[in-house]
């Protein structure tokens, strides 16, 4: 047994937003805390490195938000994207708690930038981190370490000792050796299993081989599987996840947000047979972009193509890779290895169905098709101005929703529904409590921050019942 991993009140497993919020909250509650991160220091933070913003309720405009976003509207948005597949009690609690997160997270050193306009349509609802996710993450690490939280990198949890619903110890692989770490409480914030292709295939079948993983390759679900195997109640569907359409040229892992494509609403999307398969203008992008990964996954060979023309080229945020360009539709089809005659026919049918309207990329405008299946409900403009462009896209998995069941204290529930005394969870590993399906931009960070803060607070309170400690309220350096 190594002293390096022992003598702490609370063990936090994971190194992203949820883990750091839990660690800071627990330390401010008077507990000693050790964070173990499976990744090397450079790659610390899981998917938080690739985030840009978080969605929180607020009652008025601020310096960084253009207007109010009330709790009821937040819940209505969540209810709509999940199709009601959410724990309403937990969801409403999370939304209520999110109102204070914008202040609390700033108190931990995170800075926000002024609100954004344009096609993202998030200036009122979402706060964007100044410097992006990595800057936000670095601020949390800086605060945690100033408070006295200890962090060990390249430290993978490979074993859990749980008896009668109570955590006793974890086995941690570090520096080529295995160490046993005891603690009075544990917070699991180690992400989902999206980087475990074999596990994805259990739900999706062989098509998962064609999926790209947008985030960290370290989220393999090791801790999640051990928790479920040791009697923690699971929640969620193994096929439900945050999945968007990303550039098919992206790397298998860790391509991040710069491989995402925000241009679906400005054109049409066709499969390998040059056929449309869904309404590209169904809703504003933040509420509907996360359905496209699943839609593309259902297409032959899990590949699709976004087709648009010169008028739309500069209306959206560019991605890492340039679009494929051609002077004619036939030439574009040849470059994409699509049947040219069928693509020309699909474009012709679409153009003929477009109705007159006033195009406005920032609102649900009146530009639509008529007599076309599937329709395009908004932002429908004829695609006829050369040059023509295309992006090839595949399903990009961000994180999975199968996870552990928790209550309002972020305590894990055992298989019989009994809350664990000393096991807590936050972030993607328990996101399925709120996200049964679907996604709204920025809500993953909300889940991580809110439940991380609660988990740390409750874990510290649990520890204090046995060994009271004074709360820590020190200034941020």
UniProtKB/TrEMBL annotation:
Pfam families: FAD_binding_2. Gene3D superfamilies: FAD/NAD(P)-binding domain, Succinate dehydrogenase/fumarate reductase flavoprotein, catalytic domain. It comes from the Bacteria. InterPro entries: CobZ, FAD-dep_OxRdtase_2_FAD-bd, FAD-oxidoreductase_2, FAD/NAD-bd_sf, Succ_DH/fumarate_Rdtase_cat_sf. Keywords: FAD, Flavoprotein, Oxidoreductase. Residues 9-436 form the FAD-dependent oxidoreductase 2 FAD-binding domain. Its cofactor is FAD. This is FAD-dependent tricarballylate dehydrogenase TcuA.
């Amino acid at each position: 047994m190594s002293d390096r991993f022992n003598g702490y009140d609370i063990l936090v497993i994971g190194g992203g937003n949820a883990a750091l919020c839990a660690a800071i909250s627990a330390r401010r509650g008077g507990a000693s805390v050790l964070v173990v991160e499976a990744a090397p220091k450079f790659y610390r933070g899981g998917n938080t490195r690739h985030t840009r913003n978080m969605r929180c309720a607020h009652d008025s405009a601020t310096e960084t938000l253009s207007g109010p976003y009330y709790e009821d509207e937040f819940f209505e948005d969540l209810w709509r994207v999940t199709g009601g597949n959410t724990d309403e009690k937990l969801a409403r609690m999370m939304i209520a708690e999110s109102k204070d997160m914008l202040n609390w997270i700033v108190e931990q050193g995170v800075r926000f930038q002024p609100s954004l306009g344009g096609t993202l349509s998030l200036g009122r609802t979402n706060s964007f981190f100044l410097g992006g996710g990595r800057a936000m993450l670095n601020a949390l690490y800086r605060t945690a370490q100033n408070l006295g939280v200890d962090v060990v990198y390249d430290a993978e949890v490979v074993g859990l000792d749980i008896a009668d619903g109570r955590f006793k110890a974890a086995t941690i692989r570090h520096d080529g050796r295995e160490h046993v770490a005891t603690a009075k409480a544990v917070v699991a914030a180690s992400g989902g299993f999206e980087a475990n292709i074999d596990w994805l295939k259990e739900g999706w079948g062989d098509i998962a081989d064609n999926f790209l993983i947008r985030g960290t390759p370290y989220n393999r679900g090791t801790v999640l599987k051990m928790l479920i195997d040791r009697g923690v109640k699971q929640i969620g569907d193994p096929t439900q996840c945050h999945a968007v359409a990303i550039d098919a040229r992206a790397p298998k892992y860790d391509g991040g947000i710069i491989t995402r494509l925000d241009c679906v609403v400005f054109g049409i999307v066709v499969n390998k047979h040059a056929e449309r398969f869904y309404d590209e203008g169904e809703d504003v992008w933040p509420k509907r972009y996360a359905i496209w990964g699943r839609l593309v996954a259902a297409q032959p060979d899990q590949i699709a193509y976004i087709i648009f023309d010169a008028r739309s080229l500069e209306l959206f945020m560019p991605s890492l890779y340039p679009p494929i360009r051609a002077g004619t539709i036939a030439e574009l089809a040849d470059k994409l290895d699509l049947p040219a005659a069928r693509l020309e026919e699909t474009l012709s049918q679409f153009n003929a169905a477009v109705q007159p309207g006033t195009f406005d990329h920032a609102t649900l405008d009146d530009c639509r098709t008529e007599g076309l299946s599937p329709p395009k409900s908004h932002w429908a403009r004829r695609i006829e101005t050369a040059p023509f462009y295309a992006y090839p896209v595949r399903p990009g998995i961000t994180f999975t929703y199968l996870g552990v069941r928790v209550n309002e204290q972020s305590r894990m529930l055992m298989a019989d529904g009994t809350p664990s005394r000393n096991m807590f969870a936050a972030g993607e590993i328990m996101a399925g409590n709120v996200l049964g399906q679907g996604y709204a931009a920025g809500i993953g960070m909300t889940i991580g921050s809110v439940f991380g803060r609660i988990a740390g607070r409750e874990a510290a309170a649990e520890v204090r019942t046995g060994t009271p400690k004074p709360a820590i309220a020190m200034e941020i350096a």
